[in-house]
Design brief:
Strand 1, helix 1 and strand 2 form a beta-alpha-beta unit. The protein has a domain of 70 residues: 3-Layer(aba) Sandwich (Glutaredoxin), CATH 3.40.30. The radius of gyration is 13 Å and the shape is globular. By secondary structure, the chain is of the alpha+beta class. It has a four-stranded mixed β-sheet with strand order 2-1-3-4, covered by helices on one side. 27% of the residues are buried. The longest helix is centred in the middle third of the chain and has 14 residues. The protein is built from two helices and four strands. It is 27% helix and 20% strand. Helix 1 crosses helix 2.
Length: 104
Amino acid sequence: MPKQFRCHLFWCGHMRDDETKPSCAQRGSMDIGQKLKQAMRDRGLREEVAVTKSGCLGQCKSGPAMLVYPEGIWYSVPTLDDAMEILDKHLANGEIVERLLIRD
């Protein structure tokens, strides 16, 4: 049986061919995502929370973007400090980080 996780974090690692349009990778998502994954390992959260680099999540203007599933919570994560706040508050304690939400 597949491992069951409490939630799943998807982080956009998409790099556009057309560099005149925004993409999460151009804004540092690759580094942020890798460091976030390592911080989750260091804190023992990788047994509870799945983390997957994704292709485009369709939030290019707000990126780097992350999505917490199944809650459907979308985050704009411009810095590693923001990612660590999401880790400490949302992923570890279930508290939504309002200031980083992507809203319609």
